[in-house]
Amino acid sequence: MNMPKTLWNRAASLALLIAAVGCSPLAAGSTSAQGAATTASEAQLSVHPVSGLTVVPLTATTAGGTHVFKVEVAATPAEQERGLMFRTAMGAEEGMIFPMNPPRPSAFWMKNTVIPLDIIFIGADHKVLNIIANAVPYDLSQLPSDGAAAGVLELNGGRAAQIGLKPGDRVTW
User: Fold this and answer.
1) What is the reported pTM?
2) Which of 77, 93, 110, 128 could bond 139 through an S-S bridge, CB–CB 3.0 to 4.6 Å?
3) Pick the CATH number of 45-172 from 2.40.50.140, 3.30.1440.10, 3.90.1300.10, 2.60.120.1140
């Protein structure tokens, strides 16, 4: 069938509008809407929109309970070197994990890091070795682990204290 171009454009626009409405979340308050929103949110979090890094769930178990974060994985040397440099914001339930394989003594600094961070060193047993709380933006001081770290977690400054995270607590990702 031969449609005039303007009629074709209108038909295509209408089809896109119907598809968009059909994919919208259900009304707030319904269980299905919450499930749909969670699924959509999880799908969006598989790759971080700013860094392009893979995002995975990380669980911190403290005396006060379990806390789940969505963390970016800085896996390669280049990703680890960049870390959270130049970032101006991070959500309260977000962070970045630096896996260390094999585990090794580590030290971080805050070069070109705009936001204050809690730097949490995690041992091979997934227990917190030590926490550098509220590391100062742009500070070039070495911030070392208290032993061989299998991972280093960065959260917003003060967040570890807010959830009661302490050395000996368990962190898994």
Assistant:
1) 0.74
2) 110
3) 2.60.120.1140
